Amino acid sequence: MKNPRLALLLGIFCISVFPILVKWTPVSALSSAFYRMAIAFAVVLTIVLLRKKLEFPNRKTAWLIVLCGLFFGSDIAVWNIAIQKSTATQATLLANLAPIWVGLLMFFFLPNKPKRNFWIGAALAVFGMVVLIGFETFYTLKFDIGFLFGVLSGIFYAFYMLLSKSVLRQLQPISFMTYSMAVSAVFIGIICLVSGEPFFGFSPTVWSVLLVEGVVCQLIAWLLISYATQHMEANRVSLSLLLQVLFASIIAWLFLKETITFQMFVGGCIILVGIGITFYKKQEA
User: Which residues form the EamA domain (predicted)?
Assistant: First the structure.
């Protein structure tokens, strides 16, 4: 695929299905997260070995890959918990506060500072998220464990986005994802062992869902998003991932009967406008 924006859009749609599957499937959040990583890793490793496409990173890049795997594994683990403790829409929304954390990290630690259009678009997108989730939740500080884990997921993902941008300058997306998913699978697997989460005893239907999570929601989705990250600015990619909220809301409404109110519709539209503003300057070039 030659168009990074199209790759980003398709990748976002694939991962938007994931919260619905986690919410619907009777499996613990951590077990689901482990098999998402493990299945995707097993498939991609087979592919790269057969095609002899696996690149070998240098020592510095290898350490960055380990950090990426740890941050991404943490992101998926706490996001799964947030999904099961709240709604698919809210958990997806809160996890996608990542653009704010990415922008702040870039502002404080990187020479490539976010431009004015990013901050305007980000502010508008955040306002849209507040509208979508409801002003009362923020005004009364009615934040439960699902809310906190959703926010934490976004923070973990922000670190992953910035680190992965550096790694993707050295490796092709498929090699990076192979190593990163290996680290994530091992990391989450250790957490499952320590916490006593089940690895087996699932029904054939559940195994089928776990397979979809690993192949579609993880492998295909993140190969597409990694390709987009390689060719676009990290903050713009992360902000575009807010589209997950809209996709996940629609899918949750169709299959989980989660209600989409007029307020949520308005908030989603504001989010889309905010994302469009961040791309405005680039379109002028």
Answer: 6-133, 145-279
Q: Tell me the per-residue pLDDT of 164-206, one tens digit each, with 9 for 90 and over.
A: 888 988 888 889 889 999 999 999 999 999 999 999 989 999 9
For 89, phi and psi rounded to 5 degrees?
-65, -50
Residue 240, amino acid: S
Q: Does 284 have pLDDT greater than 50?
A: no
Among 117, 104, 30, which residue's Cα sits nearest to residue 73?
A: 30
Residue count of the chain, please give it.
285
- Sign of the Cα torsion 114, 241, 220, 87 reads positive
Single-letter amino acid, residue 233: E
Q: What is the pLDDT of residue 193?
A: 95
Report the greatest alpha carbon distance in the chain. 56
The gap between the terminal CA atoms of the chain, to the nearest Å, is 22
Indicate the Cα dihedral angle 216, 4, 119, 79, nearest 10°. 10
How many C-beta atoms surround the C-beta of residue 274 within 10 A? 23
For tokens 């308005």, the residue is 266
pTM: predicted TM-score of the whole model, two decimal places? 0.81
DSSP element (H, E) containing 9: helix 4-16
CA distance 149 to 183: 21
Spatial distance between the Cα atoms of 191 and 196, rounded to a whole number of angstroms: 8
Nearby residues of 54 by Cβ (< 8 Å), 6 or more positions away? 48, 175, 178
Residue 46 and residue 52: Cα distance in Å, rounded? Answer: 10
Q: Buried b / exposed e across 4-39, counting CB within 10 Å, b at 16+?
A: beebbbbbbbbbbbbbbbbbebebbbbbbbbbbbbb
Query: How many whole angstroms separate alpha carbon 198 and alpha carbon 138?
Result: 36
User: 14-44 pLDDT, tens per residue?
Assistant: 988 888 899 888 899 999 999 999 999 999 9
Rounded CA gap, 20 and 261, in Å? 18
